[in-house]
Design a protein that fits this description.
Layout: E1 5-11, H1 15-26, E2 31-34, E3 46-48, E4 54-56, E5 62-63, H2 69-76, E6 81-82, H3 99-120, H4 138-149, H5 158-163, E7 170-173, H6 177-183, E8 190-191, E9 196-200, E10 206-210, E11 213-222, H7 226-231, E12 235-237, H8 241-248, E13 252-253, E14 255-262, E15 272-275, E16 285-288, E17 295-301, H9 302-311, H10 313-328, E18 336-338, E19 354-355, H11 364-369, E20 376-378, H12 391-407
Helix pairs in contact: 1-12, 9-10
Enzyme class: oxidoreductase
EC number: 1.13.12.3
Domain Amine oxidase: 16-406
């Protein structure tokens, strides 16, 4: 590989990079996909539980599944797509909600969304400005947005939230979302364990410096998380300070998962859920028996997830067991066995889970996506103005970058 020359190099083997490389390969282009890890998928990562079932430690839901391109890709691959309603879209908000509480919460949520629209009449603002001052459900609403965005609601752009496109259909795929995405690479050439440290675009050919040597390409797709661009993990020569600045306006939020094996199903309806607490932002959401499997999925977001990562992986299980004991009694501890997880902030090739825009910075998505000199193309969920934070948003930006290259032939 060292000293090789290709038409197009794609940097980053997540959903965007895989989509770009596969499209270019299918079009007959000489392409090479460079991935720093020893696996493909990026922030889509499927492991197996002790019984051999898939655990998606990164993205797990085919959001907007009715128009999500991964749904069609799964169908072509012969994989079953589960179209049953997601836990959060089922009647009620989860265990512990009375009809009165549910009506009150729904009214608060609708008022929040209405107020987001009002905020935008005056320009952008932190999404927290749309909360009712002193509102009963502010803590829970704020907690939910740490799961949705990975960041605290006071740091999230109201305009970015409103821009997000969601059809309300959320599917799952047999075998795991991460496995589906990694497998989509097809026969596109891949170099694993090949982190790119510098992209030198001064000459007639672009030079990519890696630990395994230098590669030359005529065009390059940069399909990396916004955090890595903002931090300068890959250096550009000449420098691209405008790209770093745009990426800095789109920090990666954090969402971590911990799965527990559940010893027996009694007492928990399949695909039901609960919140650990309703009176504080630092709480987890719990999904019981996903797809009927003997599991509990605990979901952590924002500052809560950041703090637990600093304590180490066991802290997540301890936190979850404490909350679940508060909900179901101490006996629940003996029924749950935590499984290994993946910490996304600590992952040097991710530095977080998915992007949100800071107040006033929603426009940075378009800026980050713009090509440079018709030779450098950018892709990834952070480049999507309406499908950000999703694998289908990443896919679409990867396809867009590939199509731009093909159109320029």
């Amino acid at each position: 590989m060292a000293g090789s020359h290709v038409d197009v190099a794609v940097v980053g083997g997540g959903a965007a990079g895989i989509a770009a490389a596969r499209r270019l390969r299918d079009a007959g282009r000489d392409v090479l996909l460079l991935e720093a890890r020893e696996r493909l998928g990026g922030r889509a990562f499927t492991r197996l539980d002790p019984a051999g079932g898939p655990l998606d430690l990164g993205c797990g839901w085919l959001h907007s599944g009715d128009v999500n391109p991964w749904t069609e890709i799964a169908g072509r691959a012969g994989l079953k797509v589960d179209r049953s309603p997601a836990p959060w879209s089922r009647p009620g908000m989860g265990l512990g909600f009375s009809e009165e509480d549910l009506a009150s919460f729904q009214a608060a949520r609708e008022a929040f969304h209405d107020q987001l629209g009002e905020l935008l009449r005056r320009g952008d603002a932190p999404a927290s400005d749309a909360l009712e001052p002193g509102g009963r459900w502010n803590a829970l609403l704020s907690a939910i947005y740490t799961y949705v965005s990975g960041g605290e609601i006071g740091r999230i752009s109201a305009r970015d939230l409103v821009n997000y496109g969601d059809t309300g259909f959320n599917y799952r795929v047999a075998g795991g979302y991460g496995a589906l995405i990694a497998g989509h690479v097809g026969d596109a050439p891949v170099a694993l364990g090949t982190a790119v440290s510098r992209v030198d675009h001064t000459g007639a050919s672009i030079r990519l410096e890696t630990a395994k040597g230098t590669i030359e390409a005529e065009k390059v797709v940069i399909a990396l998380p916004s955090a890595l661009i903002a931090e300068g993990a890959v250096a550009f020569t000449p420098d691209l300070p405008q790209k770093r600045e745009a990426a800095a306006g789109l920090p990666l939020g954090l969402a971590d998962k911990v799965y527990f094996m559940l010893d027996r199903p009694d007492g928990f309806e399949a695909d039901s859920r609960a919140f650990g607490r309703r009176d504080r932002v630092a709480t987890a959401a719990y999904h019981f028996r996903p797809s009927g499997r003997p599991l509990v999925e605990a979901y952590f977001g924002g500052d809560c997830a950041d703090a637990l990562e600093r304590e180490g992986e066991p802290a997540f299980a301890d936190f979850a067991l404490a909350e679940l004991s508060g909900l179901f009694g101490e006996g629940i501890r003996a029924r749950l066995s935590p499984l290994p997880t993946h910490l996304w902030r600590a992952d040097p090739f991710a530095r977080g889970s998915y992007s949100f825009a800071l107040p006033g910075r929603a426009g940075d998505r378009k800026l980050l996506a713009e090509p440079v000199d018709g030779r450098l193309f950018f892709a990834g969920e952070a480049c999507s103005e309406e499908d950000y934070s999703t694998a289908h948003g990443a896919y679409r930006t990867g396809i867009a970058a590939a199509e731009a290259i093909l159109a320029g032939e």
